[in-house]
Amino acid sequence: MAEPNASRPASARDAMLEAETTAQLARVIIDERLRLKAANAPAPQGVRACRGLTEVVDLAIQRMLDLALPEETAVREATRPKIAVVATGGYGRRELCPFSDIDVTFIVSEEEDPALDATVRRMFLTLMETFGQQVGLKVGYGYRTPSDLAHLDHQTISALLDTRVIAGSHGLTERFLRELFRHIWPAAFVRLKVAERSAIVAGHGGALHQIEPQVREGPGGLRDLHLAEWLAAVSFPSTRGDVWRQLQRLGAVSRRNVQQVIAAREFLLLVRTWMHWETGRPADLLVRERQEALAEALHYQDDDRASRVERFMEQYYEHAENVQRVTAFVTERCLSERLSLSDELVCCGSELHPAYPWLNAASPQFLVELGQHYQEYGLGPGHELRRMIAEHVGSCPDLSADTEAADDFLNLLRAPAPPAPSLHMHAGPGWTGKPGVYATLALLTSMGALQRLIPEVGEAYRRVPFDLVHKHTIGFHSLEVVRELEELRSTEDPALQDFRRIWSEVQAPQLLYLAGFLHDIGKLAARKGHSETGAALSASICERLRVDPGAAERIVALVRHHLLMSDTAQLRDLTLDKTLQDFTAVVDSVDMLNMLLLLTYADMAATGVMSPVKIRFLLDLYYRAEQALMSPETPVGAAAVTPERARRFRSRLSRQLAATSLTPEQIQEHTEGMPVSYLLNTRPDEIALHIRMMESLFQTGPVVEFDHEPGSEITTIHICTLERPEPGLLSQIAGVLYAHEISVHAAQVFTRHTEPSVALDTLWADYHGRGIPPLKRMELEQDLVSTLKGGDVEAVVARYRKQLPAALPLETVRVDNELAEGHTVIELRAEDQPALLYRITRAIAALGWDIHSARISTRGDQARDAFYVTGPDGAKLRDEESRLLDAFHTEFMR
Description:
By secondary structure, the protein is α+β, with helices and mostly antiparallel strands. Helix content is 54%, strand content 11%. It is built from 38 helices and 16 strands. The strands form three sheets. Strands 9-10-12-11-15-16-14-13 form an eight-stranded antiparallel beta sheet, sandwiched between helices. The protein has a four-stranded mixed beta sheet with strand order 3-2-1-4, sandwiched between helices. Strands 5-6-7-8 form a four-stranded mixed beta sheet. Helix 34 (729-739) runs antiparallel to helix 37. The longest helix is centred in the middle third of the chain and has 29 residues, at 308-336.
C-alpha cells in the first residue's frame, strides 16, 4: 500500500482546501483536468499523466472526507480512526486515465455507529454528486469492514489487492489488508485469474498481432501486467510494493524483463490516455484512424523503410510482445509454486498434495471436495495423496453418512459441458479449462472413491452384463453413457445439432447425468426386467443422496423407461396414432421427453449401436411426441383428420405440388387414392417423385428410385409396382437385397387404391455400413425390376452365390393385437444371421399375411424385428397365438 504523493500543485491543493460545496469541488477538478490535458498535448505521456489525474482526484476525496466528518471536535476525532477511504483497481494503481472509472471503497472499523454511518452517507453523496453528476465520471464504490472478507469473489479480491489509502486511517487499512490476505487461498486465486484472463483474451480474438488491438484487455495489453502483479502479490506476499523488483530478486524475471515492463507500461498508458483525451470518453480500441492521429501526435516520421503509422504500430507490437512474454514467465512460475488450496491441501503445478501427514483421506466430504477442486481448478491428486487415499478408502462410508457431502456430490453433476479437449482427465501446468461431469466421475472412480460413496457402483464396475451387445462391465458402460451425454451437450457435429438444442432446454442436467449413471444398475439384481429392478435401486440411491422427492421421481422414471424410446423408434410404426398414444401415456411431459431422448442416444452410442437411420427414427418419434405433448387437446396424426380436414389437406397439398411439372389430374388421382397416413408423413418432394414413378410404371413397368444425401450412411429405396393379389412383394424385394448384401433398417408399404392398384414400398438401407454406391444401385435396380416383372428371386440369389444356410431358431416371437388398431404386430428376437429378413418375409408371405410396415433393428449380433401385418381377409390375425406361432415357426425353418 503506497503513501499519497505530497508533490501536488500548490494551487490545486489550496483551491481544494477552500472548496465548501460540490460545485466548488467540481470546478477545481475540471480546471485541473483541463490544465493537465493542455500540458500533455505537446508531448503525450503515460505514467506521469495518469498520476497527475490520480492526484487531483486524491485531493478532492481528501477534502470530501474532511467535509463529511462530524463538526463537533470530540466526535470528529473519535470517528476519524474508524474510517479509511481507499482507491482500488486502476485508481489504486495510480493508472487513472482521463475517463477511467473512479473506484473507491469505504473501510469502516465497525457497523451501527451513528456518527460513522452519517459520515459515510455524506461522503458517498458528495462523491456521487461531484464526480458523477458534475464532472461526468463514473464512480465505482464499495463498503467493507475487516470482518466481511471471508467469501469475496476473485474479481473483488483483485481490485482490493491494488488498495491505496486516500484519506482516513492507515492503521485500519493495514488491518483490513492483513485480514484480506488471511482469507485468500493462493492456489485457487491464481488458477481462477489465469482461467479468467484466458477467456477474456479469447473473447478479444486471441491473437496479439491484430490490426486494431485492444490496449487494456487484449493480448499483451495492460491487463496482462495487472494479472502478473496480482498473481505475484498472492503467491509471494513479500512482493507487495515494488512487485517487479521483488520478482527479479526471486528469479522469476530478469533485470531486462523489468525494464521491458516499465517501458511497456509507459507506452500503453500513453496510448490509452491520449485516446481518452482525444475521444472525450473511455476508449481502449486502437482503431486505424487513431493510429494515424497518434503517430502524428508522437512525432513519428516517415522514412524509406516505413510510414510513421507503421513505425508506431511496430513499437506497439514490440511492447505488447514483451508484456505477453514476461507475464507468461510470472504466470508459469506462480502456477508451479507450492501454494495452499485449503486447510488440508496444497498444490504444486497441476497436482494436489496433503498439507499434513495425518490427513483424513477417507471421509466422504474430503473425497467429494477433491472432485470439486478438480472440476473448478483442474487439480488432480498427486502420487502421495493417491497413495493415502488408496490406503484408507476402504473405510470410507457411503454418502448417506454425510448430508453436506451428498449435496456437494449432486453439485458436481451440475458442471457445464467442457470444450472437447477438456474431456480428458489430465491437464498440464498451464491448463486453464475446467473438466466436466464425466472427467470428474472418472477421476473419483480411478481412486476407488465413487465405488465407496455409492456402493452399487463398485459392484457394477466388476459385473459383466448378461446381454452380448455390451463390450464393457455395467459400471464402465454407465460412465461411458455420461461421457456421451456430455459430448452431446456441446457437439459441433451438424447431424447432432437437434440433440444439442434439446440439451439446452433440459431444466436439471444433474438429474439426467445421475439417471445416465444409474440406468443399468438393475442388471446387478436381474437378468431380465432390469429396468424395473433398476428403478427400485435408483429410488434407494436417491433417498441416500437426499435427492428432492420430485427430482428422484424423474430419475426413477428415466431408469424405468430408458429402453422405451429406443424400442418404440426402432420397432414401432411411427405413422400410427396408437403408437404415439401409447408412448405419450408414459412420457407425459416435454422435459421428460427431452431427457429420455438424450439418455436413449447416449446409451445407444456408448453401446456402439447408434447409426444415422436410428438417429432419424429417434428424432422422428421425438418431434411427433413433442407436438402431441405441447397440444394435448389437439388430436394428431390420422385420428385428427376428419373427412372435411382431409379434403382441405389434399387441396393444400395439391397447391404445393402445383409448382412441379405434374398435371392437376395426376396430383388429384394420387392424393385421393393414397391413405391419409401417407399424406401426413411424406414430404411433398417425395410425393412428387412417387407420382412420376407411377406414371413410368404404367408405361414401362416396375420403377426403382434411390434417394441418397451426400455424406449419409443410409440410402432410401423407393419401389413402385402393380399391386398383386397374393402376398409376398416385400419377400421378393428382401431376397434381391440379400443377394446384393444390402442391409435393411426399416420398410414402409402403401397401396394406392386406384384402378389398377399400385404398391409403393419405401426402404431405408445401407451397403456394408455406408450408403449404396452408384454402381451397386445400377445392379440392384436391374435385379429388382426383373424380379418384380415376374423373375425368380431364388435365381437372383443363386447367381450371386448366396445359398441360404440352415436357419437358426428364433429366440422369441410375439403376436400382439393391441399395439395397432388395424394390424397385428409380429415381433421377433433372434441371433442375427444371413438372409434373416428374407426368411421372415418369405414365411409371412407363405402364410398369406400382408406386410404393411416393418422395422428392422440390429444390436451387435442380436436382431429385433417388428412387422405390421393383416390376414388374407385384410383384418387382424384372429387365430389363437399358439397356432399362429406354430405356423410361423414351421414356415421360417423351411
